[in-house]
Target: Kelch-like protein diablo
Amino acid sequence: MASLLRPRFESEQSFSSVDLNDSGVSNETDAADEYIFKEANHPIQILQGLNALRQTGSFCDVSLCVDGVEFPCHRAVLASFSPYFKAMFSNELAESHQEKVTINGVEAPMIELLLGYAYTSEIVITKMNVQSLLAAANLLEVLPVRDACCAFMEKHMDESNCLGIHCFAEAHACSDLQEKAKSYVLTAFPEVCQQEEFLALSQGKVVEFISDDKLNVEKEEDVFDAVVRWLNADTGSRRHDFHKVLEQVRLPLLSPYHLLDCVDSHSVIQQSPPCRRLLEEAKNYQLLEDRRGEMFSPRTRPRRSTGTVEVIIAVGGEDDKVVLRSVESYDPTMGQWRTLACLPFAVSKHGLVVSGNNTLYMAGGEFPDGSASKDMWKYDPIFDVWTEMAPMNVPRSELGLAMLDGYVYAVGGWEGSSRLDSVERYSPATNSWAFVAPMKMAVTSPAMVAYNGKLYVTGGAVLEDGDGIDLVQCYDPKTKAWLELQPMLIARSGSAACVLKGFIYVIGGWHASTENTNKVERYDVERNVWESRAPMNERRYRPGVAIVDGKIYVCGGEEGWDRYHDTIERYDAETDSWEIVGEMPTSRSWLSCVAMQMRISKPAAPPDSEAGAAAARPL
Model:
């Protein structure tokens, strides 16, 4: 036996761990040198023994005093299940030496439940005690019980209590439960806003919920009606700051009838100047369809739940000198591309605009054989079809195209043998083109925008080598005259331009001295001043540009000869910074991009309709 009991050393075989059966006996048939004995019921027996000692007051070394009730217990047990008590008894606090410790902010029945959990590992959670129990567990840092209470509340969440659960969870820093309750509120908002809890919400909470893009409503009128019910529940105290709530309602997206019958006629709105300004903004947005891009705000962005999303449409272009017919839409929120109806023909160097009533127009461009086009096509996003419209008077490739006050303006370009200074505009009402005053200088590849009732034509090329210029030409339809404005900081052609928050941005392009550029500048119309902004990550010649949700998206373009980009960069004006956020299905340059609203699901075209017939024709 002496040899079996001699000490082992690290160089020898390590101890073996042996599985035991229910009786604690090894299952191995061959005897091992040693085995580890483990009693499965030992922890339970210890807890049972400690609980029995607590119930009889044996060996208790501290009493918790709550609301005049004393609970004898053991410091070691308290410190083992609660970091709160461990810190209390471990540090040089007065409580570490006291036989009686007073606990404030907790109800006596909850302490009794938590002590029962400490000594038995079990606790009963009910609808009646869950809030008080969670508060106590949170204070004493009994995290398993707190989490169990959160799970219980989540399981019993419904339309009548989700708001209360959200606010309760926020007050007790239960972030996961708070977010789940908020998600429930947003998803079930049509039912939740009918509950008494909604009428009792604070102004800040109403703003938090209705400002969220994930709010699930069929139409924006439902949001307005909900906040009016909230206002009417306590008009006296809520009317003064009601404009802070109304700011989050997307009034521009309401129907004109609802604006007139319900918004304009409400007494609180009539008597509040800030509310009247919001109403005026909504009316202008609906009246001035073709200036809606200039009036972007969070209130003009559709909620996804209404079935409408704002996407970027990318049309045509060139990929490694191959002219494309492809048309795709890009949802920046989801980062997803979707293939749309192809163009009737391959084209690049064309113009693309979207009207205020969400109709897309494409004009001009260059065919694969190098000839210029004078064709005009209209795209219907509902039925995903292209329809041919009246052609321009002059073929134009590398033109500027913009929508201004109901007309499509085609400016400059190349007609096959020379640059153009001519300008013509298209009337959707009559499906016809008419010439207007020509530009001061003929240009190809300009970047053009419409802003505040005027056209702004920036840069372009005037020489055979396509070298860019810094010229800025402005057309006022009221005076029917062109003016030259402050020139750009950098001469460029083949750039992209857009309007964001009152500034005209000119992006990328080409000049002989700089070649393809990543430089960006913007024009302050009020001050007639250009200023540099942060450059893009990549140099881009003839990219596409669109604005979605107050951010500039630049797609594709050329880095250099025969090197085409498929990347998408996004610009944040608040931070003056760019980041690459995605890729296009195909690398390309000379494409055109616009932002427009599209239904998430498209209905089938009526078979006997013009759209249905167009959809049936091969493109």
About this structure: Residues 101 and 156 are 36 Å apart (CA to CA).
